[in-house]
Specification:
The protein is of the alpha/beta class and 278 residues long. It contains 11 helices and 9 strands. The longest helix is centred in the C-terminal third of the chain and has 19 residues.
Length: 278
Amino acid sequence: MTEYSEAVETARTYYNSDDADNFYATIWGGEDIHVGLYEKEVGDIIFDASHHTVVKLASMLNLDSSKKVLDIGAGYGGTARYLVKTTGCYADCLNLSEIQNERNRHLNQEQSLTDKINVIDGNFEAIPAEANQYDVIVSQDAILHSGQRDKVLQEVERVLKPGGEFIFTDPMQSDDCPAGVLQPVLDRIHLETLGSISFYQQQLEKLGFIKLDIVSMPHQLVNHYSHVLAEIQSRESELVKVCTQEYVDRMKIGLQHWIDAGKNNYLAWGILHFRKAV
């Protein structure tokens, strides 16, 4: 049986719960469960905004049918399906939630993509792959769930081919975030810390990566959680049919903590794009 660190096991238990699975499938639409790119402060559809993030990531990559991609923390696998459909690449989806992975496999089968996408139950702190296996590694809003983010980055470096690309997003604290102000956010997600843009850049450069681009968009984190909170409020009677009221109430409180911290410039979010040295 696979062993997980405490932080990863906490995330696994959460994402395997009926409440979480039903919530994300209902509010996000069952393809993606990451931060979206919004054109308006109100009124954008979460499903569409989440897809916009995937399209943006894809536009920054040079993929074709000869390339193999690994998505770490793949959720329902929407990113891999889009990349495979639009570029012809092969993709592995590594994810800790067996419940999410079941949905991912079902969607791949429905869309006739099982020959191109492999879904792996596993942990990005110990990626089950040999060294130098992948041309591209992607991750969307997942690495925060590790209490050993430096170890995750070491694993990315190990399994990525020389010259390969690593592109990811993550909810982070701002580089100048005052001490202690994020405790309500950290308590809600059962973490002791968040990463930051400077942390990821420094750690990756220590591992020999070269920065290609950092697109900082902290406003999109606030937009995203504001849209999710508004969606919960407008669809609460529907949600409580598939989620417990306690879960919905906790989610509303937690989202408000994220929104408040973001508006106070304590949080960061964006697209970080690096290349492993040849």
